[in-house]
Amino acid sequence: MILKHKNILIMLSFIAAGVALPFLSGMVHIEQHILLMQAVVIVCGFFLPLNMAIVCAAIIPFLCWLLLQFPTFFPALPVTVCQMVAIVSFINMMHFALGLSPFKSLLISILLGWLVLFSAASILSWLVADFSAVSYSFGIIAEGWPGLIAQLLLIPLFVTHWEKRHAIRVDT
């Protein structure tokens, strides 16, 4: 019972950070390049059980859209939710089930998340005639590459340090 409450509190903290950090960075117009919302979702994939990480990955982009109008409702919101859910699922599977290091788990998960992003954008382009999945997908990567590099460098360091220092592991 205590573990369940602890995980709920951690999940709510991630949701709050996932909305607050884009709000604060949006004040200086850097959110599209630094990807703080995605970073929070990725980190929660390392520290929460899969079901709670998926809830965070779905709720954080929706709340950011609702409160900050970022990401845009269409096409970014559905594509972002699909990508974030895929990334936290892959992180959880690679890091905990397969035992890969945080860096390898994150790198593979981001690459697979891009495939999900391309797939979701392609499905949307079939549904909406004036939407180009290729230009949208590559535009996201072109705008967000500084944040992607920062995530690949900083998140594995943070996760490794936190796991060693605090002996944190996923409580199911």
Provide an overview of this structure.
The chain is globular. Helix 3 runs parallel beside helix 5 and helix 4 runs antiparallel to helix 5. Helix content is 83%, strand content 0%. The longest helix is centred in the C-terminal third of the chain and has 34 residues. By secondary structure, the protein is mostly helical. It contains 7 helices and no strands. The protein has a single domain, classed as Arp2/3 complex 21 kDa subunit ARPC3 (Orthogonal Bundle), CATH 1.10.1760.
Summed up, the helix count is 7
User: Overall 3D geometry?
Assistant: globular
Beta content: under 5%
User: Which segments are poorly predicted (pLDDT under 50) over 5 or more consecutive residues?
Assistant: none
Structural class: mainly alpha
Total discrete domains: 1
Helix content: over 70%
Round the Cα radius of gyration to an integer and report it: 16 Å
CATH architecture designation = Orthogonal Bundle
CATH structural fold name: Arp2/3 complex 21 kDa subunit ARPC3
Largest sheet: none
Query: Tally of extended strands?
Result: 0
End-to-end C-alpha gap: 11 Å
CATH class: Mainly Alpha
